[in-house]
Amino acid sequence: PSITRGVTVEVPKVTWEDIGGLKELKKKLQQAVEWPIKHSDAFSRLGISPVRGILLHGPPGCSKTTLAKAAAHAAQAAFFSLSGAELYSMYVGEGEALLRNTFQRARLAAPSIIFFDEADVVATKRGDSSSNSATVGERLLSTLLTEIDGLEEAKGILVLAATNRPYAIDAALMRPGRFDLVLYVPPPDLEARYEILCVHTRNMKTASDVNLRRLAEDTELFTGAELEGLCREAGIVALREDISAAVVCDRHFQVVKDSVKPALTKAEID
Ligand code: ATP
């Protein structure tokens, strides 16, 4: 198998406006990502080192991946995506090779962002997993550390990692010069849910009885991914009812909303 398997290269099209809510977080990310990439000379002039790695943590489906893509878009950076779970499942040595290869390609393509999803699978605290898997994880982790440390001289490369188990991340990754910035990506609050619903209905023809404010109030435990699914499904329900339907009505949203069992629990959002 090719060692480039599982790596995608592109400047993503997603923008900050495609992400509902998270205003402050977007601002922080924008600074941390765009400044070092766009103004790397200013950093060297002042003798300050930019953030090299950012850890995004929070429940699944709440836009960690989308934020990383939007950051890459804003900085017009090539986007390399790696998955901890995928690396972990590869043959001996193949995962390390893919890691090294991805960093190498990111260097050549700079400015670049390397997005590392499910980081905890690889970057688990040493000694946390069973003896056999620990060796696989440890080798991947030490390769990752070597590559991140090697970015010191490289300009315009940033590693964004995502996890929903931040407590499982090995302390070695959290040292200065590695993941210097840790950002929590929370589930959407009322205002964010409203904005997410706006984003995902903006290209839909909706009837005048559709009230996104009320829908946001009625979807308390929904993640961004579930809200996106709700909008899409409502459209499908409308079509199923009448294949020549011109608009999606409130009742279509209601039917879908009532059928969704949110993955988040009340305890997780408080
Ligand atoms: P996972 O941990 O499962 O990888 P994630 O946190 O990376 O999830 P994403 O993959 O970014 O989440 O989001 C899943 C989908 O939900 C995306 O298609 C995205 O469009 C939508 N979504 C999530 N949050 C938002 C948001 N705040 N605004 C708009 N869309 C959102």
Automatic annotation (TrEMBL):
Domain AAA+ ATPase, chain residue ranges per copy: 50-189
Family, similarity comment: Belongs to the AAA ATPase family.
Designated name of the protein: Cell division control protein 48 B
The organism of origin for this protein: Stylosanthes scabra
Lineage of origin: Eukaryota, Viridiplantae, Streptophyta, Embryophyta, Tracheophyta
Protein encoded by which gene: CDC48B
Residues of the full protein shown: 314 to 583 of 653
